[in-house]
Amino acid sequence: MKPVDAHLAEILRTVRPLDPVEIDLDRALGAVLAESVTSPVALPPFDNSAMDGYAVRAKDVETATEDRPVLLPVVADVPAGEHAPHVIEPGSVTRIMTGAPVPEGADAVVPVEWTDGGTVRVAIHRPAEAGNAIRRSGEDVRAGDVVLDSGTLIGPAQLGVLAGVGRRAVRALPRPRVLVLSTGAELVDPGLPLGPGQIWESNSYTLVAAVREAGGEAYRRSAVGDDPALFLEILTGLLPEADAVITSGGISMGAYEPVKEALTPLGTVRFEKVAMQPGMPQGFGVVGEREVPIFTLPGNPVSSYVSFVLYVRPALARMRGLPAGPPPMVTATTTAALRSPSGKRSYLRGVLDGDRVAPVRGQGSHQLAALAAANALIVVPEDATEVPAGAAVEVIPL
Ligand SMILES: Nc1nc2c(c(=O)[nH]1)N[C@H]1C(S)=C(S)[C@@H](COP(=O)(O)OP(=O)(O)OC[C@H]3O[C@@H](n4cnc5c(N)ncnc54)[C@H](O)[C@@H]3O)O[C@H]1N2
Ligand code: MOO
């Protein structure tokens, strides 16, 4: 059987980062920058007020106290967005709002709370030091500064700075478009009634969600049936829109294995047994002229999700231009004894709580509810068949 690490290594050798494209800011969340972004202007672009209050000369208010406020005429109002250049003469002030340009001649802002709030004449009862509540031009970013390096993952704050430096679009690696196809004649979409021998289709829901969580855009085509020709027709029809394909089911030893039967003749997808449980039957390769990577995951629900975590998630990271490797692990103490088949790496479902992990009841690869109760996979190495309670184990948080 093929070792887990060898299977991942083969996948990561095959999968390439997507080509960068121009992406509008509104669609750029989760994309990875393929350019470094500089600011065309200083930020803030002009000296502006950090508070609502009065723009003053600090010297004019230096004697102000609660008992002996300084009385000054208010010569203008400066709301944010104002562009008329105001100048204050010694002994006068303007009203000013947060974000409004500081008038020429003023060197401090007195917050409204230190005044009587007057609009014609204001009584100021606390002095302000020069520079008080003024945000200087360029103190965030200078014109020409790099604000984001190439390779940066665009999250909410990065979108904010892109917009803040006036960018409408960026050159970036897009989020991979992933087609999720589930096969099986016994599958019925949730919401429809079950007939005899049928079950509700769940894998595509798990996998679509997992793709989205991993930064991809997912498209579902559920319950494709068990006919290899129809499977191939559907796959071929949807392939032009996909950067990667995930299938579930139809790859093991049964009489009706549509995925294996349809893809084996192409010669570009390999079906093999990987030394792991769950998830032993695996297939990986490329399809179509664009050599789109395809992950043919086993149909058992726990097997397909575990396979996603181990193989597809790192591959999507590589496609996005992010660091890609095995899932991060932490060490914990198992609260109960564990069993694992010899020669296979087990990924047991567990609940990780601090530095302790408890295996859940129900370790079958069909046990959806047990998977949903877990928040971690407990890794038992190939050479271990039993692990006593209290032993240290490696755990993959989910
Ligand atoms: N003779 C052998 N039989 C099996 C072997 C084997 O080595 N020799 N391997 C077993 C293992 S391990 C697994 S895992 C499964 C993998 O089978 P397939 O990938 O071909 O999947 P199916 O047969 O289509 O389905 C397996 C199981 O999962 C349920 N299923 C499938 N798709 C979905 C879905 N979208 N939503 C919910 N449940 C799904 C399906 O009803 C089956 O119960 O093969 C073993 N057999
Ligand atoms: O190895 Mo299969 O994936 O038990 O469930």
Automatic annotation (TrEMBL):
Cofactors demanded by this protein: Mg(2+)
Record-linked Gene3D superfamilies: MoaB/Mog-like domain, MoeA, C-terminal, domain IV, Molybdopterin biosynthesis moea protein, domain 2, Molybdopterin biosynthesis moea protein, domain 3
SMART domains: MoCF_biosynth (SM00852)
Pathway(s) the chain acts in: Cofactor biosynthesis; molybdopterin biosynthesis
UniProt-listed Enzyme Commission number(s): 2.10.1.1
Keyword terms, alphabetized: Magnesium, Metal-binding, Molybdenum, Molybdenum cofactor biosynthesis, Transferase
Catalytic reaction(s) noted: adenylyl-molybdopterin + molybdate = Mo-molybdopterin + AMP + H(+)
Ranges of residues in domain MoaB/Mog: 179-318
Function text: Catalyzes the insertion of molybdate into adenylated molybdopterin with the concomitant release of AMP.
Family recorded in the similarity comment: Belongs to the MoeA family.
PANTHER family reported in the protein's UniProt record: GEPHYRIN, MOLYBDOPTERIN BIOSYNTHESIS PROTEIN
UniProt-recorded name of the protein: Molybdopterin molybdenumtransferase
Organism: Sphaerisporangium aureirubrum
Organism classification: Bacteria, Bacillati, Actinomycetota, Actinomycetes, Streptosporangiales
